[in-house]
Design goal:
heterodimer, A: alpha/beta, Rossmann fold, six-stranded mixed beta sheet, four-stranded parallel beta sheet, 18 helices, 15 strands, disordered C terminus, B: alpha/beta, 3 domains, 16 helices, 14 strands, globular
């Protein structure tokens, strides 16, 4: 049987990105929709795709106009028990619709019918288009205007153009821009700050809230915590934004251009010195310095307490989790853990991380979930103790399982603490399972 | 309003039907899409994806591939994968993207066949059709291309056509074969084409003494096999003890509506009538999918919209409804309250597998 392709980090780091193997570059091969990584190929399946992300707008409903196949996965979000199901509507296109373009007038009619059928009326209608409209170059601005005039409800266009996944504005970047496009310029409130980046809030225990409040920012705002469009408009009153995910950079740029709200970027890290340094830089930019001594000390204590555990553990790290895989691998290696495998597609901007990993652990192997050869992936028994990310968990079912995919996003010292606790819990679970298995075998 | 779904979500599309039929035939299956359609199939329409390996890939089309029509790149990627996988054939399956750019599937198939040296099947599915049409085309094309004429029928060998998880709600034919066997006096060799039976079984399709069509999607293939090899067929769905029990429960009502794929629904209707005996309840069948003339009776209805479903329920005065639970989203609560509801999952509708009690 053929083997799944993988490459050592030493070998990868020694090559220029242009010379990286084709098996690691998704544009150069067919895409394997591995059971391990369905969240990538079908974002609606797990985590956040464009559909679920667009519904972050408070009080919104969504009209997806497309062939039926594009809305199929949304059935998973549906049902009266779901907070999404009652908010999603479909206008199914047939071939004649596509050829003649007649569905475009039907979209406006559909918006009207949806608006009339809802009580209370929706605050926003999201018009979601697909690859079909990308190729037909549909004038979405016009459709939004017409739908808005007909219904009297704010409408906004979102795009689910998988064709542009590696383009300048990939779908998940575009939807973040869409989400803030309804904001209108408003007088600034110096006590307000926005957190941009995720479609759900940070974990409530994240120190960032307390740090900002200590520094005088009494209102730390996130789109996903807004209950209605009146609260949503408060985002336009912020003093500045903190960008916590690189896919929000374009949205931040629009904040700056349209609303004159500047942004500062912080990145997720699981290395305490990096987190501390980021807060120190942020502190220098604020009128009142941040005092992160207490959360830092707590995280440091956790780190010291976890070191012995980590030294004995070998990890497999996937890309379907709340952590950037190369950064997470490097953090764990620097704490003394072993990393056997990383499942991710490398990118030139990750080169520094790749080289750093290669220096510490040259034999760590990298494989891409999307490579057709992953059809033949076979885990080496006993090689991995803990799998982080739902993809790594799939490949290593015998290891301690840590999908690390909670809706509440880990960040800063809290993210680090959460990760360490989750590793401990996963290992304990695995030990208990093994003991249970032994007991069963004995009986 | 035509095409508007306010309560339901879309059903499994034609492209999913094609892939479901081809899944176990050891082919290299390439969905001609940007990634989302493949993810939809793997994540929602194929319960075997987590259990049985299949060389199914997305073409990973990007905007410039679509704009420039770079079919040569697609063929080169398929060639690279074929060298690794060594499939029995190549299949290229259409989605909305090739539909919009009017991909010449015949030309693409010829090009691929020449470069790969493999039999190549192309399916100009658009994602706008329903799964049963895709299944039907794929079963028929498989038989047309690969069924060998050199075999004589074997008396105790029975072919089953239409056994897709999309209709069966099961990822294996184990229970189906068991129920079919139980109904016979002599031990049979049962070939459930496309489910636990792959390429070699289809090559040997002519060796079946008869074919049993368990879903409308299997009929075109059955007709082809009859025409080509003289293999007779019948339409019937072997009911499990759980489904027989469901029929007995439904039989205590006077006006029953079954919404499912038509062959299963028809077998259930017969079982309800048997159980009801002389009371002779009215049993109607409705389906959003193919309705065959040969199984239809007065009062049966092909549904084309949510409104049609609601109107049927309003006008039908039914006291018992047998259907997938997702369809209840479209039915007003007061009407639901006036009927006895019996849940019968349909995977192509809701992605819900048959519970063990009904398998």
């Amino acid at each position: 049987m053929p083997e799944a392709f993988s490459i050592s980090m030493a070998e990868l780091a020694a090559r220029e990105p242009k010379a990286w193997p084709d098996e690691l570059i998704s544009q150069k091969h067919l895409i394997y929709s591995s059971p391990a990584a369905l969240a990538f190929n079908s974002p609606g399946a797990e985590g956040f795709g464009v559909k679920r992300a667009a519904l972050t707008l408070p009080g919104s409903v969504m009209l997806l106009f497309s062939p039926g196949c594009c809305g199929r996965n949304t059935s998973a979000l549906g049902g009266p028990e779901s907070r999404y199901g009652q908010r999603t509507f479909y206008l199914l296109l047939d071939e004649t619709d596509i050829v003649t373009g007649r569905y475009q007038s039907a979209i406006v009619d559909a918006c009207e019918e949806i608006a009339k059928s809802q009580s209370p009326a929706p605050e926003v209608i999201v018009l979601l288009s697909t690859c079909v409209d990308a190729l037909l170059a549909t004038d979405m601005d016009r459709l939004v205007r017409l739908a808005q005039e007909r219904t009297g409800i704010a409408c906004v266009a979102a795009t689910m153009y998988a064709l542009t996944r590696e383009g300048h504005i990939p779908p998940m970047v575009a939807v973040r821009r869409t989400l803030y496009s309804l904001l209108r310029k408003a007088p600034k409130d110096p006590r307000r700050v926005n957190l941009l980046g995720f479609f759900t809030p940070l974990a409530d225990s994240c120190e960032l809230y307390a740090l900002l409040q200590q520094a005088g920012f009494s209102q730390v705002q996130e789109l996903s915590r807004m209950q209605n469009m009146t609260q949503y408009q408060d985002l336009a009153r912020a003093n500045f934004n903190l960008v916590l995910h690189p896919e929000s950079r374009l949205a931040a740029k629009i904040f700056e251009e349209k609303l004159a709200i500047p942004s500062i970027e912080l990145s997720q890290s699981f290395e305490l010195d990096k987190i501390q340094k980021q807060y120190a830089i942020l502190s220098r930019l604020l009128p009142v310095p941040l005092n992160d001594q207490k959360p830092y000390a707590e995280a440091l204590a956790k780190k010291e307490a976890s070191k012995a555990m980590l030294r004995d553990l070998t990890f497999a790290i996937g890309e379907t989790s709340n952590a950037e895989p190369f950064g997470l691998a490097l953090a764990l290696l620097r704490m003394g853990a072993h990393v056997a495998e990383i499942f991710a597609e490398p990118a030139p901007e990750k080169l520094a991380l790749i080289k750093a990993i290669a220096t510490i652990s040259p034999r760590t192997r990298l494989a891409s979930n999307l490579s057709p050869s992953m059809l033949f992936y076979e885990a080496r028994p006993g090689e991995v103790d803990v799998a982080i990310g739902s993809d790594a968990c799939y490949y290593h079912p015998e290891s301690a399982q840590l999908p690390f995919l909670d809706d509440a996003k880990p960040f800063g010292y809290q993210g680090f603490m959460q990760l360490m606790t989750a590793i401990e819990t996963a290992c304990q679970g695995r030990t208990q399972k093994a003991k249970g298995g032994d007991a069963c075998a004995a009986s | 309003m035509r095409g508007l779904l306010k309560r339901l979500a879309p059903f499994a599309p034609d492209s999913s039907g094609v892939v479901s039929a081809l899944y176990e035939y050891q082919g290299l299956l390439v969905i001609c899409d940007a990634g989302g359609c493949t993810g939809n199939f793997c994540g929602f329409d194929e319960p075997r994806w987590q259990e049985k390996r299949c060389a199914l890939f997305s073409a990973g089309l990007r905007d410039m591939d679509a704009i420039l029509g770079r079919d040569d790149r697609l063929v080169a990627k398929a060639l690279s994968a074929a060298r690794l996988i060594k499939p029995r054939f190549l299949a290229i399956i259409g989605t909305p993207v090739p539909c919009v750019i009017a991909t010449d599937f015949k030309g693409l198939g010829r090009l691929a066949e020449k470069k790969l040296g493999l039999p190549t099947l192309t399916f100009a599915t658009t994602g706008t059709g329903l799964y049963d049409t895709g299944l039907s085309k794929a079963y028929e094309r498989l038989a047309s291309h690969f069924a060998s004429q050199e075999l004589k029928p074997q008396a105790l060998r029975v072919g089953v056509l239409g056994a897709s998880p999309l209709d069966l709600g099961q990822s294996s034919a184990r229970y189906l074969q068991h129920h079919l066997q139980k109904a016979q006096n002599t031990p049979l060799e049962i070939i459930t084409h496309g489910l636990d039976a792959g390429f070699d079984a289809m090559r040997a399709a002519a060796s079946c003494a008869k074919n049993l069509v368990i879903a409308p999607s299997g009929l075109a293939c059955a007709k082809l096999l009859q025409e080509r090899f003289g293999t007779p067929y019948s339409l019937d769905y072997p009911l499990s003890p759980g489904l027989e029990a469901l029929a007995r429960e439904a039989a205590s009502y006077a006006r029953i509506l079954i919404i499912h794929q038509q062959v299963l629904a028809s077998s259930l209707r017969r079982a309800i009538r048997r159980a009801a005996g002389s009371r002779r309840p009215t049993v109607c069948i409705a389906s959003f999918f193919t309705m065959l003339q040969e199984l239809s009776e007065d009062g049966d209805q092909h549904l084309t919209s949510e409104e049609a479903l609601i109107s049927l329920i309003e006008a039908g005065d039914f006291d018992c409804l047998v259907c997938d639970a997702m369809l209840l989203r479209a039915i007003p609560r007061e009407q639901q309250a006036s009927m006895h509801l019996l849940e019968l999952p349909h995977f192509a509708v809701s992605g819900t597998l048959m519970p063990p009690g009904l398998c």
